[in-house]
Design brief:
four-stranded antiparallel sheet; 2 helices; disordered N terminus
């Protein structure tokens, strides 16, 4: 009975996610930030990160400025993984470099050249839950996991051999011991913590996504959508903006990057 009630609660809360967000965008603004962005991210503490070229600006859940980071040594920032708010991963794709930052946006150790680690065409990198990171190598056509000492511990099968074609994923993240690899034309490939392929989710055309409990949230055609992993169905609602580039939900706040700029809304 407890299991059934838990499932019902999960379904009800999941189905109301989009409606709650639409209400927040219409009636519960917190702050609009005067910053241009290439993309935004958030951490589980509710902090917001705005990334533009080689700059990162950090704000709290109310939009108050906290810290900033800048470096011109490695080119443009391609990806920022805030899964661990005390150890951020920054990936500079053009220079094939990974850098860790602490929760003050200070460099946490030396930058690592991916080519020196044996990855000539690393196109995606994200944190693992064992204090290392995952890397997708376009040339090898596989994802490999490295530990905190940059030693390979696990890897997937070769995607050409397994799926019969080359994959060109554009986003990768680990959540609850599963790795999610987004390939816009094919869907989201799911692997376990050891790199074993589990399944593919039929959500196409995504640039980025956010993993929540039992839900994958994403933006599609100006709508905020939630794909419910239990039901394998999506529900969406309009965000009332001409162009929406990214959106995230965290700690009672909804963060939206659109043609209007970067805005924060209250969700409860």
């Amino acid at each position: 009975m407890k299991l059934i009630l838990s499932i019902l609660v999960l379904l009800i809360s999941a189905s109301s996610y989009s409606q709650d967000i639409a209400e927040a965008v219409l009636n519960k603004p917190v702050k609009k930030l005067n910053k241009e962005a290439d993309f935004i991210s958030t951490d589980r503490l509710g902090n917001l990160y705005i990334v533009k070229n080689n700059d990162i600006w950090m704000y709290d859940r109310n939009g108050d400025s906290l810290r900033a980071f800048n470096t011109k040594r490695y080119g443009k920032i391609e990806f920022l993984d805030c899964t661990d708010p005390y150890k951020l991963l920054v990936f500079f794709k053009d220079y094939n470099v990974v850098l860790y930052l602490d929760n003050y946006l200070s460099e946490n150790g030396p930058a690592r050249d991916m080519q020196e680690l044996g990855f000539d065409q690393a196109t995606l990198v994200c944190l693992s839950q064992e204090k290392g990171f995952w890397v997708f190598d376009q040339l090898k056509q596989k994802v490999l996991k490295l530990d905190a000492n940059f030693r390979k511990t696990n890897e997937t099968v070769n995607f050409i051999q397994w799926f019969g074609k080359r994959l060109e994923p554009n986003y990768m993240i680990q959540y609850n011991n599963k790795l999610y690899l987004n390939e816009p034309s094919m869907g989201i490939y799911v692997f376990d913590n050891f790199g074993t392929y589990l399944r593919k989710l039929p959500i196409l055309g995504l640039n980025q996504l956010q993993m929540l409990e039992g839900i994958i949230s994403y933006v599609e055609d100006g709508n905020y959508c939630n794909y419910r992993l239990l039901e394998l169905e999506s529900d969406c609602d309009s965000l009332q903006a001409k162009e929406v580039y990214g959106a995230r939900k965290e700690k009672g706040r909804f963060y939206m990057h659109s043609d209007r700029g970067v805005e924060i809304f209250k969700t409860n």
